Amino acid sequence: MKSVLIEKLDSGEARIGIIGLGYVGLPLALRYLEAGYRVLGLDIDPDKVSSLMNGKSYIRHIPSHPLKEAVQQGRFQATYDFTRAGEADALILCVPTPLDKHREPDLSFVVNSLEKVLPALRSGQVISLESTTYPGTTDEELLPRIEAAGFKSGRDVFLVYSPEREDPGNPGFNTRNIPKVCGGVTRDCLEVGMALYGRVIDELVPVSSTRTAEAVKLMENIFRSVNIALVNEMKTALMKMDIDIFEVIRAASTKPFGYMPFYPGPGLGGHCIPVDPFYLTWKAREYDVATRFIELAGEVNTSMPYYVVQRAMEVLNDFGKALKQSRILLLGLAYKPDVDDDRESPTYKIMHLLEKKGAEVYYNDPYIPVIRPSREYAHYAGRRSQQVSGDFDLIVLCTAHREYQDLDPSGLGAPVLDTRGFFTDLPGSVYRA
Question: Model pTM?
Answer without folding.
Answer: 0.92
